[in-house]
Amino acid sequence: MTYLMFFVFAMTTDAVGVIIPQVMADYQLSMFQASAFHYVPMVAIGLAGLLLGRLADKLGRKKLIIAGLLLYSLSCYAFIAGDSALFFILLMGLCGLAIGIFKTAALALIGDISRDSHGHTRTMNTVEGFFALGAIAGPALVTWMIAASIHWKQLYLLAGLLCTVLVIIAARMPYPPYQASAEQVSLRQSMRLLKDRYAMGFSLAIALYVSCEVAIFVWLPTLLADYSGRFALLALHAVTIFFILRALGRFLASLILRHFCWSSVMAVFTALIFLCFALSMLLGRDWALWLMPLSGLFMSMIYPTLNSKGISCFPRQQHGAVAGLILAFTALAAAVAPALMALLGDLAGDVVAGFYLATFFAALLAALMLYNWLAQPAKAQLEKMSS
């Protein structure tokens, strides 16, 4: 059930990059106006995670999952009722709110069904693998719809139908025993996580990672738009290749993490991500054509592993609140980083300027993961929570 939830919402969130050019043409929107199709749902996801994630600890996982899925399915169905950019943006905001609700509850549920931190991390990578498959399917479906003269909003009708099935499954499925803790459910206590070094450390690391990832699938098509070499077909499908490699890596994660320490894997892979970005900037578009999609293979394990370890640093009665905080940083980075890249690109007259900022984010992430590997700041806490 959790795997399917992540697959369905990825179909819509990661298809926005293909939808934006269509709405710009259909409704005569500027780039800034059309970008609301991306940042409005991201902000809604972040707010829901930050403010409502604690409810998964107070009310239980099942109620929050069903409530979020119901809101998501109804919002998707509503796309067929209107035909204006503002209407669609509002509905995308509702979809983001729904995702923030059921995703934080689902992340908390993963903790309930995991025996220890290692099992949690492997499950999280598989979950994000299904998300990566949805990220491939959504843009591909929209591309096919456009070619077949089918309106892109039909994607949301399909997502709504799949989500309705998930509501039925979620309502009928037995959940693992969970005992809520009345001491960990207030909004004030949830906000105290902002002062916790484990919660903030993993949240900031994830924000840096997401800033690198969105640079690829939001702005790589623009970076390669002027490419006219003999690999033009590769340039056209560079983002798709990135998503495929990211999905492949996530399904291989369980095998890799069985044989290597997670902190060493994070250090090596983030260093390789930085290398892909840095060489792309130094050697130009001809190299970026290959290196940027390749970075997807190294990015594959970063988000689910950091997410898992961050949540695993806390008792299960706090997993909803912690997952919500991490989700808020994820969504904030996904909204702000592309906008900052666009601003730098506009000022310099070239999107490459924005990628220099993304390269800086990659360098910070690699340095942080190197420190994590050498100092092991969360090792004792993870062992304590697993015992």
Automatic annotation (TrEMBL):
Transmembrane residue ranges: 31-52, 64-80, 86-110, 130-150, 156-175, 198-219, 231-248, 260-281, 287-306, 318-341, 353-374
Cited InterPro entries: MFS (IPR011701), MFS_dom (IPR020846), MFS_trans_sf (IPR036259), MFS_Transporter (IPR051788), Sugar_transporter_CS (IPR005829)
Keyword tags: Membrane, Transmembrane, Transmembrane helix, Transport
Main localisation: membrane
Record's bilayer topology term: Multi-pass membrane protein
Top-level division of the source organism's lineage: Bacteria
A Pfam match: MFS_1
Compartment(s): Endomembrane system
Family to which the UniProt record says this protein belongs: Belongs to the major facilitator superfamily.
Protein name as annotated: MFS transporter
